[in-house]
Specification:
The protein is mostly beta strands and 119 residues long. It contains no helices and eleven strands. The N and C termini lie far apart (36 Å). The mean pLDDT is 97.
C-alpha cells in the first residue's frame, strides 16, 4: 500500500487548506481500515486530526472538529482534508496514514507534505 499527499505548500491566513491523499495498492473501502490525517508542527509532536472509515463515517479531533472536514472519492481511491480559517499555527508537515482497525496500527504512511501558513 502506498499513500501520497498532494496540495499547495503555501496557504494564506484565514484561507482553507486542502490536501488530497492518493492511495494505491489497496482500496479505501476495504473493511476495517481508517484513512487518517496526522500533522506535525515544526519542533512539536504528532497530532491526530481525524479519519474517514471504510464505511465513509468520519471522526475528528475535538480541538479541530469545528474547522476540519475529511471526505473521499471512491472512484479515484482518494481522500481529502479541508481545514478552514487557518493560522500560522497550522503550519506543519501533514501526513496521510492508514489505520488498521484489527491491529490498531498506523501501518502505512505517506511521506508527508509541508504546508506553511503565511501571508
Amino acid at each position: 500500500v502506498q499513500l501520497q499527499e498532494s496540495g499547495p505548500g503555501l496557504v494564506k491566513p484565514s484561507q482553507t487548506l486542502s490536501l488530497t491523499c492518493s492511495v494505491s495498492g489497496g482500496s479505501i473501502t476495504t473493511y476495517d481500515y481508517y484513512w487518517t490525517w496526522i500533522r506535525q508542527p515544526p519542533g512539536k509532536g504528532l497530532e491526530w486530526m481525524g479519519n474517514i472509515a471504510h464505511s465513509g463515517s468520519t471522526y475528528y479531533s475535538p480541538s479541530l472538529k469545528s474547522r476540519t472536514s475529511i471526505s473521499r472519492d471512491t472512484s479515484s481511491n482518494q481522500f481529502t482534508l479541508q481545514m478552514s480559517s487557518v493560522t500560522p499555527e497550522d503550519t506543519a508537515v501533514y501526513y496521510c496514514v492508514r489505520h488498521s482497525g484489527s491491529s490498531y496500527e498506523l501501518d502505512y504512511w505517506g511521506k508527508g507534505t509541508l504546508v506553511t501558513v503565511s501571508s
